[in-house]
Design goal:
By secondary structure, this protein is an alpha/beta fold. Helix content is 41%, strand content 13%.
Length: 123
């Protein structure tokens, strides 16, 4: 158990699924609706794929990783997440037990659904 987990804090990280796995990634959760291109399931090191917790296809297409739409995207995505309370709670519990890494496929490293999901769960 990590130090944050020992204190009852959440230990959530975000990482591109294309980046190499690390020992301190802990429990690895793919939080994209679509499986990332060019990544085999054997090599991805994904412990859990929560495609239903990802933004809806409509929201994802609307956003397009446009930084100027980030605040609106987060608000809309957080509204969608309220319909997935059980899965959100599952992730929060897991993050209190030890490191959890949210994996995403987007090239955008700051303005993506994994970052928005992390923010939602940590609130």
């Amino acid at each position: 158990m990590g130090q944050a987990a020992a204190r009852g804090e959440m230990a959530i990280r975000i990482k591109r699924v294309y980046d190499p796995q690390a020992a301190d990634d802990g429990f690895r959760v793919l939080v994209d609706r679509l499986w990332p291109r060019g990544v085999s399931k054997e090599n991805a090191g994904v412990d859990l794929w929560l495609r239903d917790i990802a933004p809806s296809a409509e929201l994802r297409k609307w956003f397009g990783h446009d930084e100027t739409m980030w605040a609106d995207f987060k608000r809309r995505y957080h509204e969608e997440l309220s319909a997935h309370k059980e899965q959100v709670d599952q992730l929060a519990r897991k993050a209190k037990e030890g490191n959890v890494t949210f994996l995403y496929g987007a090239k955008e490293e700051k303005f993506n659904n994994a970052a928005a999901l992390k923010e939602y769960i940590e609130k």
